[in-house]
Amino acid sequence: MKARILMFLRREEGLTTVEYAVAGALVAAAVVAAFTALGGSVETVITNLDSAIGG
Q1: Angle (CA) 37 22 30, round 5°
Q2: 22-41 burial code (b ≥16 CB/10 A, e <16)
Q3: What distance lies between CA 32 and its chain's CA centroid?
Q4: How far is CA 29 from its chain centroid?
Q5: What is the pTM for the complete model shown?
Q6: Residue 23 confidence (pLDDT)
Q7: Residue 49's CB: how many other CB atoms inside 10 A?
Q8: What DSSP line would sit under the chain, residue for residue?
Q9: What is the pLDDT of residues 9-47, one digit of tens each?
Q10: Secondary structure letter of residue 54 according to DSSP
């Protein structure tokens, strides 16, 4: 039983899954940050276009 537990703890397959999950979370956080940062810029551009058109 002890040998099976040690073999389970030494396997690295689980680590790659955790690494992919962490990488995915970082990518998602970067996307959210980018959209949040660009949101104000897009709003400003739309407001300027609206003013230029005369709406």
Answers
A1: 10
A2: eeeeeeeeeeeeeeeeeeee
A3: 7
A4: 3
A5: 0.51
A6: 93
A7: 10
A8: -HHHHHHHHH--HHHHHHHHHHHHHHHHHHHHHHHHHHHHHHHHHHHHHHHHHT-
A9: 777 666 677 888 999 999 999 999 998 888 888 888 989
A10: T
